[in-house]
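Ticket closed. Logging final result for Protein GrpE.
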Amino acid sequence: MTTEQDNPQVDQAQEAPHVEAVDTSENPADTPEENSLEARVAELEEALQQAKDNALRAAAEAQNARRRAEQDVEKAHKFGQEKIVSDMLVVADNLERALASVEGADEQFKPVTEGLELTLKSLIDGLKRHQVVQIDPKGEPFDPQFHQAMTMVPNPDMEPNTVMDVFQKGYMLHGRLVRPAMVVVSKAPE
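Final structure:
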């Protein structure tokens, strides 16, 4: 039988294997070719992130543009009638003046007065159906957002800054002022 001393190969096999130290500073895996590939991958990842950001921005801009367009269409529907409403207000004013001129007239003008009243009423009702609201502020506090003061008159019977009389009624379309009411405002006696 052979012992360990007889076989020198067994002695060498049982010894701890010898590992050579590898210098990582000169690793053959870090060749210039691999460094350029890693740089290229990093560059492409950065470009991908930039493209994602640009895509998100473009989608947000498109959504904002779509929302603005919808709002513009809605405003056009609401306020596209503003010019024709302004023209109709002149007709309403003329009918009111005609009624004021025949007020208290003889019985022979009664059918004319009734016709004018019905015409004015149908015009005002038609305007209301299209969201045109009349502003008749007589007796209300003066509001410069909706009233245009033509003159101020001292009046001890009324609170200062109260609308005493209305020269011309104002109108609003969908909550937006089309024409302010022209009014006479009270002021404190001097």
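Residues 80-187 form a domain with the Nucleotide Exchange Factor Grpe; Chain A, domain 2 fold (CATH 2.30.22.10). No further action required.
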